[in-house]
Amino acid sequence: MSASSDTRPPVTHPTPAASAPSVGYQGEPGAFSELALRRWFGGSARAVPLPDFETVLARVRSGEVDFAILPVENTLAGSVAAACDAFLRAEVDVAGEVVEPIRHQLLALPGTPPSALRRVSSHPVALDQCRAFLARHPHMRVVTGSDTAGAARAVAEGGDPAAAAIASEGAGERYGLEVIARDIHDRPDNQTRFWVLRSWGAPMAAPQPGVSHSMLVFETRNEPGALARVLRELAEAGLNLKALTARPAEEPWHYRFIAEVEGDLTSGRGAVAIASATPHMVRSRVVGPWTVRGPGGADGVAAPHADAAGCRRAIDAVDRALVRLLAQRRDLATRTQSLRTGGGDLLRDPAREAEVLRHAAAEARAVGLPEESVRQLFWRVIETCHPAVSEAPPVT
Ligand SMILES: C=C(O[C@@H]1C=C(C(=O)O)C=C[C@H]1O)C(=O)O
């Protein structure tokens, strides 16, 4: 794989007409997909729980939901095969990518001693991320379920003190369960990539900063070197291959490949690479471009670490990203002001300021931060973006 630097303009990021988009996800409230969609869309999005990946894809394709979120790869368990297959069968576009840290907790009825547990249930992909813990506790029979939060709800509703679930801490809180064993995933830097999906042709809006990613979905002829020839075109265009997924096509021993690259395959050298690769492919389509958000993503937020020094480096990266976002906010606020005043003096809008603080408080609530201190902080943010704004925060 080759390194590449991307200096093209920011990717156009989709925002639906309504301020609160509906976003479909597989699972029940408290699922990791719900956390991932909050990272992308914020606290105001309407999260729509759906039973399986096929239904998620069908709903976004038909426009019944504005977007969908789909877990595609976990750093411990690998590709989420069922999600990739559902994606390959549907005609949808990737509008973004979220990388979400995944922390698994062993949850049971409050007051349950660990020795009383006999059964543990969760989604198979979650169970795969906790193999070492499960191997150390062979007295617990492993039961696969359709999702993590659903397994937690079933333990709460079942009332059986021998039953446990593996799910997020948030799912435990939602269903009144206690954390019996904390952070039981095999590595502390466990994380999952999710694609944000939209139907083809859904409206696009404001450009987002960050490196663009895109993908080529293709099949090759069953002949020596066919895959290598396609990949060589991408490499020679200087596009870094970040993931290559092979899934079975219907015909025996034929494969569909998903090649994800850092770069835009719809223009410039990316488009040239696709043109050169086309004779080597049986079927192909280009999806994207999109930007990545979350640990390790293009927004510069670092991945979690096992040791304190690593965590501090990650905090430093988060802080740098926060300051860059502040500068971005200041530029937007300055532009808003000059549009509103025609270049004159600062024109305050207390109603808008109150709205900004309300939004920040709602986001804080969604991610479990203290609302009042986030409100205060945002008052300072408004002030920092406009040094002339310096009175006490409005009361809402
Ligand atoms: C940027 C603006 O100007 C001022 C600054 C605001 C802000 O930083 O959020 C909000 C309202 C105005 O008092 C605006 O009008 O939106």
TrEMBL record:
SUPFAM superfamilies: ACT-like (SSF55021), Chorismate mutase II (SSF48600), Periplasmic binding protein-like II (SSF53850). Keywords: Amino-acid biosynthesis, Aromatic amino acid biosynthesis, Lyase, Phenylalanine biosynthesis. Signal peptide: none annotated. InterPro entries: ACT-like_dom_sf (IPR045865), ACT_dom (IPR002912), Chorismate_II_sf (IPR036263), CM_dom_sf (IPR036979), CM_II_prokaryot (IPR002701), Preph_deHydtase (IPR001086), Preph_deHydtase_CS (IPR018528). It catalyses: prephenate + H(+) = 3-phenylpyruvate + CO2 + H2O. CDD domains: ACT_CM-PDT, PBP2_Ct-PDT_like. Pathway: Amino-acid biosynthesis; L-phenylalanine biosynthesis; phenylpyruvate from prephenate: step 1/1. Residues 1-25 are annotated as: Disordered. Residues 22-199 form the Prephenate dehydratase domain. Residues 302-393 form the Chorismate mutase domain. Pfam families: ACT (PF01842), CM_2 (PF01817), PDT (PF00800). Residues 215-289 form the ACT domain. SMART domains: CM_2 (SM00830). This is Prephenate dehydratase domain-containing protein. It comes from Gaopeijia maritima. The lineage of its organism: Bacteria, Pseudomonadati, Gemmatimonadota, Longimicrobiia, Gaopeijiales.
